[in-house]
Amino acid sequence: MGELMDLVLLHAFPLDARMWDVPGALTPNLRGHGEPDLDTLARQVLDQVGDEVVLGGCSMGGYVAMAVLRRAPERVKGLVLVDTKHTADAPEAVRNRLTMAERVEREGVGEWLADAMLPNLLSPNASPQAQALTRSMILEQRQEDVAWWQRAMAKRPDSADVLGKADIPALVIAGELDPIMPPEITEQLVDVLPRSTFVEMPGVAHLPPVEQPEQFRQELERWLTSAVR
Length: 229
Hints:
Residues 7-218 form the AB hydrolase-1 domain. InterPro entries: AB_hydrolase_1, AB_hydrolase_fold, AB_hydrolase_sf. GO terms for molecular function: catalytic activity. There is one protein chain. With 229 residues, the protein is of the alpha/beta class. The chain has one domain (6-90, 146-228): Rossmann fold (3-Layer(aba) Sandwich). It has helices at residues 38-48, 60-71, 91-107, 111-121, 128-139, 143-154, 160-164, 183-186, 188-192, 208-211, 213-228; strands spanning 6-10, 53-58, 76-82, 170-175, 196-201. The protein has a five-stranded parallel beta sheet with strand order 1-2-3-4-5, sandwiched between helices. β2, α2 and β3 form a beta-alpha-beta unit.
């Protein structure tokens, strides 16, 4: 999309690059190894992309984007944050993540995980295609990645300081019906980022690019054309 730099989009938990239907974008699959830490994923991303990027992420992908910005701010020329937040997890959220990680390690990734996650990821109005894609992505993840991702997210820091220094154009997108990251939470990013645009997508939950890929592409292209190019 951008003429001079890569557009990089980072996937949500517990999904993979198939959640993005954005032609021309680089969409790495994030893989956990070693001690769980989002900085590990940030290094993976930086090794796979160009020297100047427009960097986007949904949910967990947004957390990784913030970790990239913390590590190499000079390489990020624009930021797209979708249904994510800058704050660290509260103690109860940390406990829930660690409990899920332990269950995944005991039982593997199965229908139980998809059944638990889908009501939080998609709205009741999501198309059968969106539901099938999301379920298949969940079921096809490696159990070691799912557990690692949860442990890494549980220990992530608050990123307000990093975002506050990011004097770059930023697009913040929120799904109107997101039950785990409602728009008023995502919109807090606007107060932290120096140069941001906020868009609330109606009728979708935690995964706007999956539920309404065409509308998501339109919002992204509109912003890229006006703010980045």
